[in-house]
What does this fold into?
Amino acid sequence: MSYPLFVKKDIDGFFGLAIDNLVQLMLIVSFCKSLCGMPDELVFGMILPGAAISILLGNLFYSWQARRLAIKTKRNDITALPYGINTVSLFAFIFFIMAPVYKDTGDPYLVWKVGMIACFLSGIIEMLGALIGGGLRRITPRAALLSTLAGIAITFISMDFAFRIFEKPIIALFPLAFILIQYFSKVRFPLGLPGGLIAIGIGTGLAWILGYMDGESIVNKNGLIHFYPPLFCGGSMIELIQSKYILQYISIIIPMGVFNVVGSLQNLESAEAAGDKFNTSSSLLTNGIGSIAASVFGSCFPTTIYIGHPGWKSIGARTGYSILNGVFIAIICLSGFVTVILKVVPLEAGIGILLWIGIVIVAQAFQETPKHHAMAVAIGLFPAIAAWGLLMVESALRSAGTTLFELGKSAFANNLAIHGMISLERGFIFTSMILASISVFLIEKKFLTACMWSLGAALLSFAGIIHAYEITPNGVLSVFGCGVASDFSVGYCSFAILFIAMHFYRRGNDEELNSSKSNNL
It folds into this structure.
């Protein structure tokens, strides 16, 4: 069998993954400059080159990993794990660490150093996760892992891009039609052109013809386009390793690192459900190394295994799309060309590919789990929906010039259970896994195992990993400590008591039934 580095469908995969990465880079440039006061020399000269190193190395590794698996299994349909900057960590680090530090000090260089340390510590946690990741996957039902991903896919991926498509239908719907034909109908276009390439070409043409793009803005008036070599910045972190800001925000850094580990485990399970079984330890270890490499070369944002492997696989992408993405992102980060790309190609031209990815992940959660576990998958969606809903509420309030803190506790009392939404949102990736796992074991009548998961939830609540929060001027923050969400701990303990009672009740009934059968014989 032949194992080519590139196949034609890698082009579609490249465009989709590259657009996803471009969105993250756009957010980094925008947030670092507007919320953290960072000058261009920091954003383009330090942060983006650091991101380039980590994204390039990670994509090359996962491409090699997939090719190695293809040769080992004698299969030419292995798809590399997608990889890039972690979106959730990006938002968390900006809004809950870097922006508050800038507000407190007004020093963008201090903000940058604190961000680098946060990224470094996140990478350490991800590497430690490689030691326990395999065991955690073995004890967690597939429905629990996939339902969490499905919740994230349908909210933070599909809904966001669906809104963007329907916001500008004149330039976004026609390209979407080509993507849907390609992936739903499996129709081959003339000359074998990839549907994603056609969609981006047509969407870009429509945007320019109809006047949605500004030709003058392409001219780089700031002189940002030139080579920015990656520079080792580890010494800058050592200066602040014992800073009060690191200790102050460690309660955000540690949960986000754990969040990245669990998210990567879910993506590995999703890849295995799609037919590609990758080694857990080496995948998580590379994740951590990528984040550490990003930090020591100046980036503040951890990298991770991306959601979406089944979607890229269904498109037909194999290993080459990962190489193309890594090289492309590295080039535009090291040259400052990212701003020009975003001014030439409208996001609406290609985001239909990402909408498709979300659809595939949601479908997989139901298709690749036992049919009778469908209700467990469904219940696992709710925490992610709560997280997305809270993001929408906070974004709307911020646009209106206010916050939850300013509105006070009773603002939504009559029409929105905002505090229930926030409680469900805090640590939602863990809550989703726990609720789905409990549901699976209840469906299987394994009450003792359901009891153990309930006690785990009680412990996490007691420590504040899930459900505990406080509303501050800087947003909703998690609260950690003994008994910070004790009401939830009590609730989950009541789950455990009932489940253990049902275990012994059912065992007693079974013994009585078996005894009756023996007497009849």
